[in-house]
């Protein structure tokens, strides 16, 4: 077997490094290679009707449940913008009852992190800045999210930016 001295042949060294890198990529698990499932915020509201101060989440897997949730929360989602619930499911995340305006919920970036037995959905909970002038009104902020029916396995843990768990849900099909 004839060995080529790599110091004298930079092209051969580059080819060898590239081959090693590709071998590592090919050895990666299929889950590591797949893009994470896409989470999309559909709409949000400040007065979603939650009486409890504790955060919560609701799984919406069919059109009848979606209609009831929209009527109860006052959220607006035009029919033309509603997802195909055969391919997607919805998640309504409640921040809980709050004493003033200025609270809200939004997706963090990245929104989904895989775990060994499921996924973590990351949210950012907004609150008024200390000392800010805010209107005195009871609010109950919420966020309606769309998730794919495929690509999520196991429990979905919902956490805010501090790492507090708001809820854990089972995606439809994982029951």
Automatic annotation (TrEMBL):
Domain PrcB C-terminal: 92-147
Keyword Cytoplasm part of the UniProt annotation: no
Sorted UniProt keywords: Signal
The protein, known as: PrcB C-terminal
Secretion signal span: 1-28
């Amino acid at each position: 077997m004839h060995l080529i001295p790599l110091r004298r042949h930079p092209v051969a060294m580059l080819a060898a490094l590239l081959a090693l890198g590709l071998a590592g990529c090919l050895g990666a698990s299929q889950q590591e290679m797949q893009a994470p499932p896409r989470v999309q915020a559909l709409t949000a509201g400040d007065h979603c009707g939650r009486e409890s101060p504790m955060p919560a989440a609701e799984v919406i897997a069919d059109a009848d449940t979606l209609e009831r949730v929209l009527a109860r929360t006052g959220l607006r989602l035009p029919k033309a913008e509603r997802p195909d619930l055969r391919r997607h499911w919805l998640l309504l995340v409640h921040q809980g009852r709050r004493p003033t305006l200025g609270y809200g919920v939004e997706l963090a970036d990245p929104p989904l992190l895989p775990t060994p037995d499921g996924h973590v959905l990351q949210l950012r909970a907004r609150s008024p800045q200390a000392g800010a002038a805010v209107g005195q009104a009871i609010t109950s902020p919420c966020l309606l999210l769309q998730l794919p029916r495929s690509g999520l396995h196991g429990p979905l843990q919902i956490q805010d930016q501090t790492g507090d768990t708001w809820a854990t849900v089972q995606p439809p099909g994982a029951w």
